[in-house]
Each structure stands twice: as C-alpha cells, then as structure tokens.
Amino acid sequence: MRLRNIPVLLVCLGFLLLSSCAEKAEVIVKAEYDSTAYFLQTGLLAPPDIAADNQLTVQGVKLGRMLFYETRLSKDGTQSCAGCHRQEHAFTDTAQFSTGVEGLLGKRQAMAVFNMAWNSNEFFWDGRSHLLRDQSLKPIQDPLEMNETLENVIAKLSADSMYTNQFMRAFGSEIITEEKMSLAMEQFMNSIVSVDSKYDRYLAGSETLSASEERGRELFFLEYNPGFPESSGADCAHCHSGKNFENDKYINNGLDLPEDITDIGREEVTGMDSDKAKFKVTSLRNIELTQPYMHDGRFTTLEQVIDHYNENIKKSPSLDPALEYTTYTGLMLTEQDKIDLVAFLKTLTDDVLPTNPEYSDPF
Q1: What pLDDT, in 10s, does the model give residues 5-38?
Q2: Using CA atoms, how far apart are residues 87 and 79, in angstroms rounded to an integer?
Q3: Closest CA to 306 of 236, 228, 230, 221
Q4: Burial annotation 113-134 (CB, 10 A radius, 16+ → b, else e)
Q5: How do residues 328-354 score in pLDDT, each as one tens digit?
Q6: Mapping DSSP to helix (H, G, I), strand (E, B) and coil, where does residue 171 land?
Q7: Does the reported pTM lie above 0.85?
Q8: Contacts of residue 150, Cβ cutoff 8 Å, sequence gap at least 6
Q9: Which domains does the chain show, CATH number per domain?
C-alpha cells in the first residue's frame, strides 16, 4: 500500500516545487521601462500643448498619481497633496485655509487641480512657479504645508521597492530624484481633465438647458451696457472666456480698497505696483464644487460672489479697467438674474470628475 502511494506523493511534491518556484520567479521579476503613451480625453477642448520633454505616459501618470496620494511626502507621514486637493471637490479644499502638518494654516485658499494642461501663464495664485513641475515640489517644502525636505522624501521612497520599480517603469531608472518626482506629478496633474458637464453636452447637442439655465447663459456672455439696461449683461466672459472659462491672466477684481489690501498677490512676484492685488483668473468649471471662493476664500456661496461683482467692487489703482467701468452703476442684476446666473454656473459641474477612478487614491 505504501509503495503504491509513492508516485502520488512524488507528483504532489512536484506540483508544490513548481508552485514555489513560480512564486519566487514572480518576486524577482525586474521592472522594465514602459513608454506607452497616455491618451488624454479632451472632449470639446482643443488638444493642450504638453511640454515636449514630459509627454504623458501610462507609467509616468501612474507614478505621479501615487506621489499625489503619498503621505510620506510630508514630515510626519500624515499629509499628501490629495489632503488639500480632494477629488470630490474638484481637487480643492473646502476649508478657507488648509491646515499643514504643524497645525499651521496656509495663507491662501487651495486652488482646484484640473485642466492644468490648458494653463499657459504659470502656477499658484500669484504665478510664482513657471511650470507645473516647479509648483509640484513647493508644498512639500513649505513649512505651512508638508514641511519636509526633498532629501528625506527621496530617502523614504528609495527604501520602497514599489517606488523604485515604478520609477524604472516611468523613467528607465530606479534612481529617484526630485526632477523625476516633479515630472511625474506634472504628468498626473496634466492628466486630470474636466470636460463632461451639462454645458459640454449642451454644446455637443445632446442635452438642453432649462429656461433659467439658458437665461443665465445669455447673461453670462452679454457685455455690460449701462446705456441700455434692458440688454445689459453680467459680462462674466470678460475674464472667464473660452471653453475652459478662464483667460490665463492675473487681475485685481476689486475685493479691497487700497488701504485694506493685505495680500499684494502678483506684485510679490513681479515687483510691479501695477500688479498689486492681482491674482490668477481661475476656471469656472466645477465652480459649484470648489467653495469657498477667491484667493482668500472669503465668499462661501456663489450668490455672494455675484453680489460682489454686481455692486461691491472696490476701486484701487490696479483694478481691472473693465470691472472699474461697471462700478458707476453696478451690473444692475435683478434677483431673478442672480438666480439664473447661478443656475447656469451649475451646468459647468463635471458629472464624472468627482468619482473618476483614474484620478482616485491608488493605495
């Protein structure tokens, strides 16, 4: 009986050895460079001008996504980029000022991160970073945010084979550098696209706007005309133009009188008095999701924002000329006008972005 069982035992042993070898082989498989291009969904927007030295690849975007959600980029391992740029809020923060790892508050409201590939005038509210890759590393080192050194981050990531393998796939080398980190994060942020709103479907002819939304659309694009109040509009497209609803400029939108300006904005970068209190014009896409509003998060509702432009613009030397022109009479918006404008603005909310698995936490 025992002799008859020997062949069976040998077969079983063989299977176990093969299985064990297969597992070991799986563990020692080395990562290889993969240059497969990442396909960017641009909807009705024109294809963006992606930097020639950092074209999007599947593995580069994946690495950038990992870094975007990686808490080890912070001093105490509790905070990631995604902590202040949350997907459900179009990658911004609902707090007026985000709290860093030391419990300190930031100086400005966190900016939304989507359609970055269509930005061509630098980054941050004041434009102090020329490229998105430059911007990506600053929060890591900012004492008010992650408060960590790039040297420490590289050491932490280099000790993890998950990261050394992914850097190999993305860049052809396991060696982690701050430049590669910045390029990967730039790739991921450039991959975050918002092009699927009700308004997009309206433009494509697949959906219609309600009467209130349509009237809000007309008001949004109509210019201010004090001579003909009945046909005067809200003139929003003066700054929020094109299909991305921004103009790649910096303006002073009249939030404060000269004596009340505490944040000089763009002037801090250029040193020019004419840039005092000027801030980056942001996209109005997903504006319903990105409250609070303005660089300092002073407004909590869209109604407050509209009231500001309608009748509360403050004059100062650097105030945008088109906005100053409206101060003589205000925009003359009725309560119904305001309701309709808000209705239209909400058609710019992307239905896919807040839950798109391509942009979610990969861990």
Answers
A1: 444 444 444 544 444 544 444 455 789 999 999 9
A2: 15
A3: 236
A4: bbbbbbbeebbbbbbebeebbe
A5: 999 999 999 999 999 999 999 999 999
A6: helix
A7: yes
A8: 137, 140, 141, 178, 181
A9: 52-194 (1.10.760.10), 198-348 (1.10.760.10)
